[in-house]
Amino acid sequence: MERDSIFADMLFDSRPIGVFDSGIGGLSVLKHLVRLLPQERFVYLGDTARVPYGNRSAETVRLYSSQCASFLLTHDVKMIVVACNTASALALDTLRATCSVPVIGVIEPAARRSTSETVNGHIGVIGTRATISSDSYAQSIEAHSDGRSLFVHSQPCPLFVPLVEEGWLDSPATRLIAEEYLRPLIANGIDTLVLGCTHYPLLGPMLSSLLPLVKLIDCGECAAHDAFDALGAVHQDVLHTPQISLYVTDHTPAFTLMARQFLGMPIDEPVRVSIDNLARRTSER
User: Fold this and answer.
1) Whether 80 contacts 98, CB under 8 Å
2) 128 in the same domain as 60
3) Is residue 1 situated within a structural domain?
């Protein structure tokens, strides 16, 4: 990632990092951010009242994403991580054009990583229908191909998100569905698979057992590394108590339980907020 002037001296900026997602999946991104940047403070917003974004129009996704970013900017964040593939695919350019702080998505970092990991040039991408239909991963992989002949094999996996949220991470039913989804990718000889949804890392162990010779790319982990690099941070092995402020647009019964599973740590109950009336112009702070 190029370090333009907007990133200058961010390592010494004490403001928090903002993270948003349409729901809870983005917490898997937050987990990597906390691991890589334990000294930082984080503000996380889950737009649980309007999840999922995947079945919304592009205009609506841009509006919702702008409202999420506006909320984070009211907390004086120094960076925004869009921990949602749909929002990254459809709203990232809008956010970067209107936000007064750097904005990092999850698609480009994972696409870039996949091009460096593949050996045979056959890269698989799994995600929601909206993410796959946007063709954002294929376009980004092509943009980072450096002239190599790369072949992108995309597969929507709409049942994975509800399975994860039900906690069925390695049930017989989940395995049968995964085998069906993965069959065409295996037939195409992929050696690298991008997990193009922030829920999917929880299925990582099961997917690895079905694809033992395939390198799995966690889009959230890749985005966290981009944030780490952008801040010019230095890895720290010291232990810190994570400083995380959690907000949601609707309290859902399973949020706290699932959030603890995604983060792998105890958390406080999230605070419910309304963002519907926030201005679309996210550059205003």
Assistant:
1) no
2) no
3) no
SS3 string, 206-262, reads HHHHHCCCCEEEEHHHHHHHHHHHHHCCCCCCCCCCCEEEEEECCCCCCHHHHHHHH
Tokens of 110: 């994972």
197 as an active site residue: the answer is yes
Domain boundary among 175, 197, 219: 219
Q: What count of other Cβ atoms lies within 10 Å of the Cβ of residue 245?
A: 15
Query: What single-letter DSSP state applies at residue 285?
Result: -
pLDDT per residue as tens digits for the range 206-259? 999 999 999 999 999 999 999 999 988 655 555 567 789 999 999 887 788 888
Q: Find, among 29, 25, 73, 88, the residue nearest to 52 by Cα.
A: 25
Task: Count CB-CB contacts under 10 A for residue 42.
Answer: 19
Q: Which domain holds residue 122?
A: 107-219
**Tally of structural domains, the chain:** 2
Q: Give catalytic status of residue 84 as yes or no.
A: yes
Among 68, 99, 197, 222, the one annotated catalytic: 197
Mean pLDDT of 70-95: 96
Question: From the candidates 68, 84, 219, 222, which is the catalytic residue?
Answer: 84
Please indicate, yes or no, whether residues 88 and 141 belong to a single structural domain of this protein: no
The CATH number for 163's domain is 3.40.50.1860
Q: 193 - beta bridge partners?
A: 124, 216
80 and 114 in a common domain: no
**Mean pLDDT, residues 34-40 taken together:** 91
Say yes or no: 164 and 211 in one domain: yes
Q: Are 79 and 102 in contact (CB under 8 A)?
A: yes
Instruction: Yes or no: say if 180 and 155 are a contact pair by the CB < 8 Å rule.
Output: no
